[in-house]
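Researcher: Sit down with what I've pasted below and flag anything odd:
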Amino acid sequence: MSFRKAERKKAKLRLALCGPAGSGKTYSALLIAQGLALPCDHQGGRIALLDTERGSGELYSDLTPYDVATLTPPFSPERYIELIEGAGAAGYQVLIIDSLSHAWEGEGGCLELHDRATAASRSGNSYTAWREVTPQHNALVEAMLQSPCHVIATMRSKTAYELSDDGNGKKKPIKVGLAPVQRPGMEYEFTVVLDLSVERHIATATKDRTSLFDGQHFIPAPATGEALQAWLESGTDPIEASRNLLATLTAQVDRIEAVPHLEDWWRAHRAEMLIPEDLEALKGRCAARKAAILEALREAQPRLGNGRARAAA
């Protein structure tokens, strides 16, 4: 393992929009998706929307062209994964998951799966029941992270009220969002997390790896998606970088002459930053090299044996 110069790679967006009911999550997601999606000619469209809100995802069909798939209960991670992978296979540029909260708190979601696992266990231990549910949720997160689409996920925030000055010297209660309804720490899986307010649908970044929205309070628009797209495209091409690295590593593998050295090399390089298919190619190259080394040793054994016999004679 060695150090190398840090380079930001081109990547797909992982954006979370959080807010209480009425904060404009779906509407904002579609506007941002409009700016993210580049013009294309392929059938299947540019934007796909996974709708868990009983058809509300189609209310904005006049806003921008998009396709919709309605997900009804049970809201299990497995069913989300099926649609996420389907959107990627269909070639959509942007996938909106509206809402990701149902996978956690909805009917058939992770909390309900956990309750069932707890009830089914002999001990009734709710802590150990997570052993059954956590891998399912992890698989959902992995499906989002590995998707070839830009992913925009909406999450409902737990709601509270606070008093605010209405500008006339009076106080009025306003609805504010707290933590999103999802597994604690879920926001760390995203590139950008925007909190939306009910009042005027103002977005504030609570996490922003792009630094595009630092200190800003703004109304999401197609220009938001365009800015994110430009930032994403400014990195180095991950496929090109992976292929170049694979060529270098393959040459190293081909020069190794002993199986123990090959195994040591693999332990030191198995975590290299390669795209999945290139990592599999490297594994295959190592396996082929190991087979070649062992075959060469087998072929050498008879010759060594004959040499010893002649020496003894």
